[in-house]
Amino acid sequence: MPSQTIRLGLMLLSTCLLGAPQAQAHIESVTRLTARPALYERVDFVVMLSATWQDPYCSTEVRLDLELTAPSGRTITLPAFYERGASGQSSIWRARFAPQEKGDYHGRFVLAAAGARHESAPVDLSVAASDQRGFLRVANPWCLRFDRGDPFRGIGENIGWEARSNDDSRYFKALHENPRFNYEYLLGRLSSNGGNFVRTWMCAWNLPLEWTQVIDSDRYTDHPGRFNPGAIARLDELIDLAEATDVYLMLTLDPHGSFLGRQWELNSYNVRNGGPAATPTDFFTQPAAKARYKDRLRYLVARWGYSPHLAMWEFFNEIDNAMYGQTPERIPDPVITAWHAEMSGYLRQLDPYGRPITTSISHRDVAGLNRIPTLDLNQKHIYKNTVAIPETLHRYLQADGKPYVIGEFGYEWDWSKNFNEFAADMDRDFKQGLWLGLFSPTPVLPMTWWWEFFDQRGLTAYFAGVREISDRMLAAGNGRFAEVPSTAGAATSLAVRCGASTFVYVLNPTDAPVAARLELPQLASDHQVVEYFDPKNRHWQSDPTGRTVPAGKGLPTIALAPHQAVILVLR
After folding, report:
1. Longest dimension (CA), the chain
2. Would you identify the CATH topology of the domain 3-127?
């Protein structure tokens, strides 16, 4: 880009930060479109206003908020968002509000422009009860809990993006470019098989909100404005789809690749494209870049924050890979930790619904990152070592006192390999990772990558059995879990007590049959073996003997074929 254009872009950004001159700013009208507001359901407002700006998405130039007092007396500030209209003329803005309390709300819209505060006429609404469960909160290391009180564990997978028009896989290009793999199909398939959670990315080829130049996707087109209208429309549709399928989303706001190679060259924050950052490090340190990012967060909360099915914000996919991918020197740990502390603190203040916030690493810890108080969940990715999932979850929980999530796992990460050559190993790893997560302290079970590959192999149906056991665990203990020490000889075993029931996972990880004698040495009272569950075919079998296990004693030997697993339920 010519240097003159760069200077112009920087001048406009500087104007945004300092505040552009405005005249006669005022709110013209407020219309509530939702006739009967109900608890946790979307309430829509349209606001007509007049103000002057260079960039309507720049909150230091022009900002519209809905300020409300809830029935409990709690003060709520909800950001509104610009829709259309010219500077200095009547423009259309919208607000999407999800009430979290029944009863009467009172307040007004407030326009901040030209250094002055402009208020609307009073805004009042009466909110009725509903059957909605509300937003998800961190309850304990094992589960989340809805506002209504129902416990929840996330069971699902990564659906990083929809089918690309130009995929770089050596062996699976045709599969990854198959238009069948869109959100409608993938969320529908997952939901119909018991899945309830998905992690998905915003990037240069999927939901490219801040990308003026799109790559590898014919679903979106380049757009010179601040936010890509195709991404806005598709994220609107995705939220509606998540609600229709009852699937909850972890929205990943940036992948590490946004700061490497070709993607950095096209990044809208890059000074070559009129942005404020000459280097990736500048993105994390320059005040202009941070101000621009905060306005992105503001838009995300304003437009989509109303939906409980947008369950979590995730700042970065594998931030360590962005740090170590730089030359000649990597981005220092304190820079990344300070940025996450600032942005998570801002987002916590901005989001009136208080949904959980997280970020992720690949495999290298970042000093201080896990201790940031406004990051609710810590997260890493594990490949080629799925058996380490339980130990990893326990270690980080003990070290930092926060719930931990394995955001990606898999038998293989290298997309240049032909997975068909070891497909059986991929399948076994997929299944094992889910069960190891279910019987370990994590509120979201480990999420596999390679969603197209596994769906093609029929593995999506496997989620149904995991969900079946998870639902029984949650019902038995109402979201309370206690680990029970267990051994099973050559077999792997994990045991968890939920209420009056103890659930035991036993796996033969070897290529030969084993006779597993399950020992539960710390059972506090006698237990009766009630049922056995076969994860392979979802078959339940009652124990015909009605045998009782004396406290501290072992069960009779269980014969397991190679790689066979069984779930036992004791009461």
Report:
1. 84
2. Immunoglobulin-like (2.60.40)
